[in-house]
Amino acid sequence: MERAAYLPAILLLVTTVLLVLAVYAVGLLLAPSRRPNGADPYLSGHLPVEHAAGRYHARWYAVTLLFLAFDMEMVFMYPWAVVFADVGAKALMEMGLFLLILTLGILYAWREGALRWA
Amino acid sequence: MGLSDRLRAFALARPHILIAPLPGGTASRLAVERLARDRGWPLAATPRDADVLAVCGASDGDLGTHLAHLLSQIPAPVALARLGVEGPARVHGGAVIGTDAAEVLDLAAARLLDADLQRRLAEAGARPAGEQADMGDEGMVAAGLPTAGTRPDRDGLELDALTVPLGPFLVAWPAGLTCTLVLQGDVVQDVAVEAALAPGAGGAFWDAPWLRSLRGERVTVAEAEARRAAAHLDALARLLVVAGFDGPASAAGRLRDGALDGGADADGVAALRRRLEGSRLLRRQTAGYGVIDAEALTSAGVTGPALRATGLARDLRSLSDSYPGFEPCVLEDAVGDVRSRWRQWLAEAEQALRVAATSDAVLEPVDGQHDGPRGRIATGPAAHSASGALRSLLPGALVGEDLGIARLVVASLDPDGDEVLVVEEKEPAGHV
Question: Does the beta carbon of B381 lie under 8 angstroms from any beta carbon of chain A?
Fold first, then answer.
């Protein structure tokens, strides 16, 4: 590879870095204070009483089943992806049909509420 | 440097104002909102977006600490303005105080541009940058605070319960009201309601014409009805901001200021009404939520538009001689949800402005009572705070709703922080 081929990329990189540094420089010059303001949340003037790190249920069963179903779908899609460009439109339509059937399954699960709190 | 001064002037040409309304400060809040709208200065929703903190009204103790914390959350450059203090605009104790909103805010904006002043203020007020997480006691305490505890939720699972104060200083929130919610996810499980009292004399702004009439002064129906329309439009503007309709909120604010100035623009209100009733998005947001039926309202002692929004045609004005031929405004499909209440406000504002334009009677009380913008107004032994009754509805109405609906419900009930002031002076055995 010629070194000259890299010139536009290097130019772009240098310009980007300079622009970012310029923005930081303007901020440092104009800011009234160098020290940050603090990172407490806006609770309408109150101080936080507890940590808001929310725990939630992972719903392992639902997640596992969904994963299995769509993993089997991916198993079919991997070999398809390799030969699909050679076979052409027919392969596309066949995979489309397969995906449509699986999408109907997802819609059913959605309407049944299986995805709530998932 | 000339360049940095010019950049600063460009950046701070239209400072963002964060309004901190306090009970008793309605007049100054209205002045600030009007000024901000006329000059095109945006109103900030959170302290991080603000440049000027405009405190409207007098504060004491607890509210004072909240205000101080709010001020510390505003990034430099920052200017504090206290409105409602007698005298010309001047600097006192690090704040700009005065009565005239334009003078005070101009002085505050000038302080924003003073680079040396802002640097000194920032150095003086700087706090250590956050507290590091306490690595020793993992899982239980971080940054000195415990993690949220759990409690059973409505599905029977143990979920985190987070305490969220919808505090005194929140955008489009009634002044002086604090609702401390316990949230699981976004569902409200518990509510604790507190109302702050304003120290000293302020007097209810929205109820002023009726209170003056009860004291024996001569008040015209036109003035009272214009004030009523302005009160409804003010409440509507707050609800529209909560719902995300900033354009119509600004239009409602303009109509409110017009009504307060004395011009009765009933057609403008009618146009706003058509625009909002035709909005499908607003209908989807508000219809069917926050339903409070007539029984709950009457047992809480609620009167006024909140009661009429359930379909009950009870209005003292229909019994009064000062309102000949008055029909209480009751809309079809009024079911007592959020949508019925804001539609009731709009309909009553339009009706009030039409009455104000044509009436030349003097306001007379019915059995020593009036029907004010939020409910019955009376003094003496029959005194009963209409806003206190609305506040008592809040716990029942908010529990079980999600956070967005809860905010809309509070905005649709809109208890007035100033009203507590008046009743508390009469009934020393206080209640909120």
Answer: no
Give yes or no for a contact between B200 and B25, defined as CB atoms under 8 angstroms apart: no
AA letter at B323: Y
Do B414 and B252 form a contact (C-beta atoms < 8 A)?
no
Q: How far is CA B27 from CA B197, B257, B430, in A?
A: 17, 11, 25
CB contact under 8 A, B69 and A45: yes
Residue of A nearest to B155 (CA): A117
Structure tokens at A78: 């991997």
Q: Which of residues 165-204 of B touch A (CB under 8 A)?
A: 165-170, 173, 178, 185
| Nearest one of B100, B79, B104 to B90, comparing CA atoms | B104
The stretches in chain B having pLDDT less than 70 are: 1, 60-62, 126-144, 198-203, 381-383, 420-432
Q: Are strands B79-83 and B95-98 parallel, antiparallel or unpaired?
A: parallel
* Strands, E assignment, chain A: none
Instruction: Quote the ipTM score.
Output: 0.78
pTM: 0.83
In this predicted structure, the answer to whether residue A39 has a pLDDT above a threshold of 80 is no
Q: State whether residue A41 sits within 8 Å of chain B by CB.
A: no
Contact B177, B66 (CB under 8 A): no
